[in-house]
Each structure stands twice: as structure tokens, then as C-alpha cells.
Design brief:
Length: about 230
């Protein structure tokens, strides 16, 4: 059984396109869990209208942010493998099959892949997110604290990781970075696929990944992440 975990916030313009690209790759017993963080548009309505009970939707009582929304979705998941999913991208048709093959053939704990970078009209910006974002997934714990190279939207992991990564520490910068750092700490097997298995949409309205932060804010965030790693006890 697979679980796809999505956090939504005012995503009515794109979420159906994304969910369509996901659901056609899943078996009936697989689940899609959506945690909505207080959308003020028609996100909830369009999901319910299109999918009924096929998509499990949970609504936060108050706005808690993307990190805690993903934490909630992960905690609710029942699958053997969990996929993280943004609300406004598009999965390539071979994504699930290719990722599951890696879990089966390479006994991976965490699998990541590359992505096409496109604009809001799906026009190509760059054929590789890792090239576009200057990612280096082999840089180790300290390097990944300085610059996170692990993107949650391209991440899947075994359910055995859940008790190791949850709950997310309150003041970490990014949930995907935390998952990667814990896997490094616990020496879990991470496999990276060079294939582009998602169209990663950069249109300026994304909930994550588009904000430029001041140097001071970045330094404070990194210090909080270092503190979380030092105090990690699982």
C-alpha cells in the first residue's frame, strides 16, 4: 500500500491537475491524504467534487504552516511507502513505477529524483531542478545544513522512517531537509534517481520554495537546525 501526502493552501487553480496526475498511477487500495491549512478559496470544494472519498481530506483548525501540515499528513498515512506531494506540480506518468522499482531492487529507505522546472504555463525553465538549484546531495550533514539539496516534492520513504523523523522539531527550516538529515544521522540508505519524474512548477505563488530570506534569517534558521540535530535522541 502506498500513501501520498499533500499539504494544500489556496490551491484550487492547480490541485486537480496535480491529483489527476497522481491518482492515475495508484491502485485502489493506495491512499491520498490531503491536509488543508485553512484555504480561503475553493480548494476543499473542488477536491470533494472531483474525488469524493477517494481523497482523504483533513482541515486544520487554524493555519499551522506547511511543515506541520506535512507532519500531520505523514502521521495519518498507513502506507508501506510514503510519497510527499506539492499541490501545484504535475507527476510524470512513470514516477510511481520507477520509484517503487528502486525500493524493491535497491532496498532503499529514502528515494529522491530530479524534476523539470517549468513556469505557470508549463513552459520549460530548466530541464533539471538539481542543476537549476545547484543541488549536491552528496555533501553530507554539514553541507546540507548550509544548503538544503533535498526537495520534499521529489521524495518518498519507507514507513519505518516515520518514528525517526516525527514529530518535526518546532523550529527547523524545512521538513524535507530534516528528513534528509535524520537519514544521514541514522545511516539509512538514500538513492537518487537522475530521472525527471515531476514537472516542478515555479509560478511565484508556491507555498514553499519561492521566498528570499535575509542573511540574518538564514543564519538563525541554520542555528536552529543545528540545535535540533544536536538534541536529536531517537
Amino acid at each position: 500500500m502506498l500513501s501520498v501526502c499533500m499539504a494544500t493552501y489556496n490551491g484550487e487553480r492547480f490541485v486537480i491537475r496535480q491529483l489527476d496526475s497522481v491518482l492515475k498511477q495508484l491502485a485502489r487500495e493506495d491512499e491520498v491524504i490531503v491536509v488543508d491549512d485553512g484555504s480561503t478559496d475553493n480548494t476543499l470544494h473542488v477536491i470533494k467534487e472531483h474525488y469524493g472519498d477517494r481523497v482523504k481530506v483533513y482541515v486544520n483548525a487554524s493555519n499551522i504552516g506547511a511543515i506541520k501540515s506535512f507532519e500531520k499528513a505523514i502521521s495519518l498515512a498507513k502506507g508501506d511507502i510514503l510519497f510527499l506531494c506539492d499541490q501545484d506540480d504535475i507527476w510524470e506518468d512513470n514516477k510511481v513505477k520507477n520509484v517503487i522499482t528502486v525500493f524493491e531492487e535497491q532496498q532503499a529507505d529514502l528515494v529522491l529524483h530530479d524534476a523539470y522546472v517549468v513556469d505557470g504555463k508549463l513552459q520549460m525553465i530548466n530541464p533539471s531542478w538539481n542543476d537549476y538549484n545547484h543541488n549536491n546531495i552528496n555533501q553530507g550533514i554539514f553541507g546540507n545544513i548550509l544548503k538544503n539539496s533535498y526537495t520534499g516534492a521529489f521524495m518518498a520513504f519507507k514507513k519505518e522512517l516515520v518514528p525517526l523523523i516525527l514529530p518535526f522539531p518546532d523550529k527547523i527550516e524545512m521538513h524535507d531537509q530534516w528528513i534528509a538529515l535524520v537519514c544521514m544521522l541514522k545511516k539509512k540508505k538514500t538513492v537518487f534517481l537522475e530521472q525527471q519524474l515531476v514537472k516542478y512548477v515555479r509560478h511565484g505563488g508556491n507555498v514553499t520554495g519561492m521566498k528570499r530570506r535575509s542573511i540574518v534569517t538564514q543564519l538563525k534558521g541554520r542555528m536552529r537546525t543545528i540545535s535540533a540535530i544536536i538534541n536529536y535522541k531517537r
